[in-house]
Amino acid sequence: MSAVISVTEVRNALRCPRVFALGRKLGRPVAFPVGASALGATFHRIVESFARSVSAPPASWTGLGAHAESDKVAHTLRCWVLDHLVRELQSHPHLGTMPAEVDDLAEALRSFAGFVAGQLASFDTNPAAALQSLFRAAELELRASVPISESESVSVGGRIDAILEHARGNLDAVEYKLTDEANAELDAAQVTLYRYLVRQQLGLDAQPTVLRFDPKLTVTRIQPEEADELAHSRLLPLVARMVAWARGEEPAPATTRKDLCAVCPVRVACAAEYRESLPARDDPPAGAVRSRPEPDGSLGPDAASGTADVAGTSTREEDLAEVKALERKLQQVIRSVGVPASLVGAPAVGPTLVTFQISAGRGSVQHLDREARDLEHKLVTNHGVGATYEKRGGVRMLTMVRAKPREVRLPALMHRESAFLKERPGRLVLGETTTGTVLTVDLGAPTSCHLLVGGMTGSGKSVLLRAMVISLAHYHAPSAIQFTLVDPKRVSFAPLVSSIGSHLANPLCYECEDAVRILEGLVDEMEERYRTFAGMQVQDIDDYNDSMPGAELCRRVVVIDEFQDLVLSKALRPSFEEAVQRLGAKARAAGIHLILATQRPDAKTVQPGIKANIPGKIALKVQSPVNSRIILSEGGAEALLGRGDMLADLGQGVVRAQAPLA
Ligand code: SF4
What would the CATH number be for the domain defined by 4-247? Predict the structure, then answer.
C-alpha cells in the first residue's frame, strides 16, 4: 500500500469506499464525474499564477497608495487577474472554442477579484503590502501523520488551494470550487481535512472555507468546532478504515448512493471484485431461501391472466414477460445474499418501474434490512437493473427499473380522468403513478393550489409543464380558464400556442420585466375579486360562479418556466417575491394560481418566502439530495431516472409518477 493516503482518496471514499479500494487495487486514481465546470483546472491555474505574482505586482498596482478608493482597488485588481486570463487564452488557443465557458470563467475570476478586494479593505497598509499578507500560501503541499491505532499511523497528504491571512490575523484554509452545491458536503469534508493537516504540519489554526464560483461567488465558512467534530467523528476514523480496505483486512462496503453506480467508472471491476458477500456465520445456507409459492417463478394465476389487481389497476399483457424476468433476477439475487426472504403478492407495475413486496420469511426483517444495500448493488452490477429498497412501516418493498418502459400518453390519461377534469376548471393530469393510477391535481384544493416544479436539464420539465397546461385547457372554454405563460428561454411553450392560443390571456411572455408587471396586475385583480366576493357575500370563485350563471369569472393560471431568472435579478427580485408571496398566500379562493418551475432548485432560487407560499411540490430529477430537499423537504429526487420520472407532494405524502407525452 502506498504510504500516503491523499485527500482526494478520502473524498472518493466518502462517495463510495469501494471506489477508493478499487483505485488502490487497480493502481490508478478513480474519480466520478462531479459536474465540474470544464474550465475548473484553468481557473485554478490562473488563480495560482496570480497568487504567485503578488510579490511582483504590475506598476498599476504598486502605484496605489494606502488610501486608494476601494472602487479603484477593485478595478485594478480585476484587470490584473483578467490579464492572467488573457495570457492563459494565448497559450491555450483551444479555449477559444468554448466561448460560453470562457465567459463563465471570466465572471468567476471577476468574482474572485471582488472577493480579494473586499478582504484588502480591512488592512491599514497599502494594497500591495496587504495583498502579500493576505496570500500567506497558495497551492501548498501538506502532509501529516494520522494515528490509526495505538501503535500505528498513516500519512495523509494533499494540496490546499490557499491559506489566507486576514487583517486581524485570523486564517482561512481555502478551497476554490467551480462545481455547484451538489458536492457541498464533500467539499466541506475536504476543506475540514485540510484544516487538520494545516494544524498538524504548520501549527496554525485556519478556518475551513469554500469559495464556490458558480460563477458568482458563494463563501461557506465552517465553524472550527463543527469542523473538528467532523474530523474526529468521521474523517479520521474513515482514514483508519481506508487503510484496512486497502490492505484487504476488511471488505470495502458499497456506496449508499445507488445513483452513483450507474455512472461509476469501475462498475465492472466492482461487480467482479465484490461478486458475493460472505453470509454471516449464523445465516441460514443459501439453499434455505424460499422462493415465492409458484415453483416455476410465474406471477401467479391473476398475473398470468393479465388481470392482476394492482391497487385497482390491471397489469397489461405486454408487461408480463418483463415483470417475470425482473422477478427471476430478484429471486436469484435474494438467494445469493443468503436471506430467507420471499416475494409477496402481485407486483405493482407502473410504466417505468415494477415494485415487489418482500417478506423476510423465516428470517428477521432486520437481517433483510441489513442486506438491502447488497441486494440493490447486485441487481445493478450483476443484472444492470437499477433498484431501490424501501421500508414502508412494517412492509419492505423493492422497486426495479424496467428496461423497456411503457410510453405514457397524455390523451389516454385525460380520457381515464375525463369526468374529474370536466367537473371544474383548474384540474389537471400530472402523470401515471408506479401502481398504474393517474396522478391528478386540483388547483382548487388548498394543498395544491400553487405548484413548485424543479428539475435539471433532461428531467422532462418542459414536457411536464406542457402536459399540465394542455390538460387544464382541454375540457374547458377560454372563458373558464386563461393562461399566462412566461418563458425566458423561449423554448418551453412555443409548441403550445397553436393548440391553446385562445386560452392565452397575454402573448407568450419572454421578458422578466413583463412577467413581474403581469404578476403585479394579478395581485390587483385578486384584490378586486375579493372586493366583489365581499359585496356578494360569497367565499370563493366557485361560490361566485354558482351564483352568477352566464357571468362566471375565469380561473387564471400563471406558469413561469425558469423563474430563477427573476430571483437572480437584483432589480426584479423584490417585486417578484412580494407578488408571489401575496398571490401564494391568498389567491387560491380568487381562482388565481401559480406554477413556478426552475432547473436550479437551490437555496438561492427557492427562497423560504417562495417555498412557504407554494404548497404543491413536484421534483423531477435533480442534481443532488440538497436540491431534492429544497423542493420536497426530503431527498430522493436526485435518484430519479429523468425524462419525466417525478416525485410529487400534493399534501398527501410523496408519490412517484411518470409524466406523460402530449
Ligand atoms: S459500482 Fe457502485 S458500489 Fe461499486 S464501486 Fe462503483 S459506486 Fe461503488
Answer: 3.90.320
Residue type, 570: K
Work out which ligand 1 atom sits closest to the CA atom of 22: 5
Q: Which of 11, 12, 15, 16 to mutate to test the pocket of ligand 1 (most atoms within 8 A of CB)?
A: 16
Q: Which residue, 347, 214, 216, 273, is CA-closest to 16?
A: 273
Give, rounded to a whole angstrom, the gap between the first and last alpha carbons of the chain.
57
User: Over the stretch 272-310, which tens digit does the pLDDT of each residue have?
Assistant: 788 643 333 333 333 222 223 333 333 232 332 232 333
Which residues lie below 8 Å from residue 458, measured CB to CB, with a gap of 6+? 621, 642, 643
Report the atom number in ligand 1 closest to the C-alpha of 19.
5
Please give the model's pTM, rounded to 2 decimal places.
0.56
Nearest protein CA to atom 2 of ligand 1, as residue: 261
Tell me how far CA of residue 360 lies from CA of 277, 338, 370, in angstroms: 19, 11, 11
Superfamily grouping for domain 410-658? P-loop containing nucleotide triphosphate hydrolases (3.40.50.300)
Q: Rounded to an integer, what distance in angstroms lies between the CA atom of residue 500 and that of residue 662?
A: 13
Ligand 1 atom with the smallest distance to the CA of 264 is 6
Instruction: Give me the CATH topology for the region 275-401.
Output: Threonyl-tRNA Synthetase; Chain A, domain 2 (3.30.980)
Q: Name the β-bridge partners of 144.
A: 156
| 437-451 pLDDT per residue, tens | 999 999 999 999 999
